[in-house]
Amino acid sequence: MVGAEEHDDQQVASYSSLMESQLCEKFLATGESYRSLSFAYRISPSYISRVVKNVLKILRIRLLPMLMPPSTESDFRPAKFLLVGDDVCSVNFKEEIAEIFKLCWKKKILNIVVAVTCREMNYSSTSVLTYDPFLVKDSIWSDSYTPTLLEIEDMNNIYYEKFMNLNGNDVRASMFTVNPSAIEDNTTVSKFRGCDAQMTETLAKYMNATLVMLPNDGSGFGKWNGTVNTGTDGDVMFERADIAPNTRYIIVERLKVHGYTYPHDKEDLCILVNKSSRIPQYLNIILPFATIAWMTILLSMPFTAFFWSLIRRFGSDSSRAEKFACVYITSFLKIFSVFLSVAVPSLPSVGRERILFVMWTFFSLIITNTFQGSLTSYLTIPKYMPDIDTMEQLSRSGLKILIHPELLPVFKLDTGNPVIDALNSNLIPDIDMEGYPEKIQSDGGTCALVNAYVGQFLIRSRHYVRNGFPLLHLTKECPLPAVVAFATQKYSPLQPRFDSLIRRIVEAGLYKKWQQNTLDESIAAGDLLLISNREGKADPERITMSHLQMPFYLLFLGYFLSSVLFFTEYVRTKMNTDSTKNEGNKKLGRRQNYQTPERGSGSLFQGP
Q: Is residue 179 part of a domain?
């Protein structure tokens, strides 16, 4: 008993925790007030406020060590101030301070000041200096670069406001071709078009910087986590580029080696599958009705024949002499003839049979006409099997899912969900994302995990559209959203300015507009094709029992009226038989009473 009570307590605690987490998620997602949530959950607003605070506190305790790990020695490099004192002012003290600033620039120590006390003869002065690497256009990345010293006039010279204007200095970007967000322009060297390319150009424009696109040759620049980091990741990790403006998913582990800009989009990871195949023509005969409708219609024929045989055999003296099997076969043939609109050799002559016959005729007329109309539609308009649109349908299909190795930890975050757990067993890591469509087309048992925006281009690609209809399909339900951003150097001095501009771009809706413009331009250029939706599917148009209520109500009405007439006639016949029998018994009694005295009176006159 104690064990059972403990198990019940655990179940109650688990349910309570689940309810509290759902309540907090709804509060954060919808922004509803405590009072509004109290009506929905039947909980007082004060209790909801405590639940939200407790859940957020637990989330902070659990997520803070993962998203913001404890500081290490290298985390203190972006110091705010650096104070240097000197009693004697040398002749070349400014050059010496410039060398300090140059070293700080290479170490990403930017927001610093140098306080120097100079004493000459009877004169002493204190100077507070800082530097602005972007004050004049110069090659800040070259060894011969010398920072320009600035006298501190206000606090804006110290903090990040000095990065508002780069005065034409270079911003180095490393970008590779990714259709459709970054498409290389063949007309210009190192020129790209697409939403990512337009975002990069906008950042450089409003920072008053010169955008330098670095050639990406894919060579390695070092190792991290046991693997060689090539391409744009290697460029920003080893400070060859300031930004890698290709949209990428934020991987928490990579925060150890490079940074990310402010997330500029939330891309849904969807499943790319083959479009459903056409339903074979021979199945069109049975598709108009649902399975339960077919079973009910087919069972109604033998049951109606059985009911007709009962009221016919037991309601007529002439039919009682026949065998029940013969009566049933005769009734079934008439029922089947009416259903197929075939002429019946003889019509019933009794009222109870006529009512049942009329109701069955109406029932058959409605059913057959409905079937003929639906069958015509199925034969003239091609029908297709339902597409895979939900994760539950995907798990039942058993398809193998191609996934990029870096997305494996992101996809497996939703553990505990039985559907996601079933999908996790079908994951196949594959780094060749460009080859996903070909593999899906060649292997019917394969699908792929792609982001929704790229999927919209793939399903419209000329190679995967036939006669205006797509050969690929994106699921409507996405397993999980993923936050995307650009990669930057760790502790990059340009990061705050990048983040500020990206926030303004996202809030203005420009990035979404650029995505749509890229799609429209690709369609106008003929790179993508307009696609049409297929005309209907099989399952949503099938006729079910809810559509066939009226004919079955008529049939049940016929059963009821025939039963009433049958029992009425049976009772009346029974009563007539009993009354006739009673009258016959009375007549027989009177006759016997009349004959008995005559025999007695004759014996009185008989002599000896």
A: no
> Residue 466 falls within a domain, yes or no?
no
* Phi then psi dihedrals of residue 153, to 5 deg: -110, -40
Same domain, 156 and 79: yes
Token pair, residue 399, equals: 């398809």
* Count of structural domains, the chain: 3
Cβ proximity of 49 and 23 under 8 Å: no
CA–CA dist 506, 484 (Å, integer): 12
128 and 94 assigned to the same domain = yes
Q: Which tens digits make up the pLDDT trace of 447-493?
A: 998 888 888 888 888 888 887 788 888 888 887 777 889 999 888 87
Q: How confident is the model at residue 220 (pLDDT cuts 50, 70, 90)?
A: very low
**Angle separating helix axes 351-380 and 324-339, nearest 10 degrees:** 40
> Structural domain of residue 315, as residue ranges?
296-380+548-565
The pLDDT tens digits of the residues spanning 243-288 come to 988 888 887 778 888 889 988 887 678 888 988 877 777 777 787 8
What is the SS3 string spanning 517-540?
A: HHHHHHHHHCCECCCCCCCCCCHH
What 3-state DSSP class applies to 356? helix
Last residue in a domain, options 163, 185, 220: 163
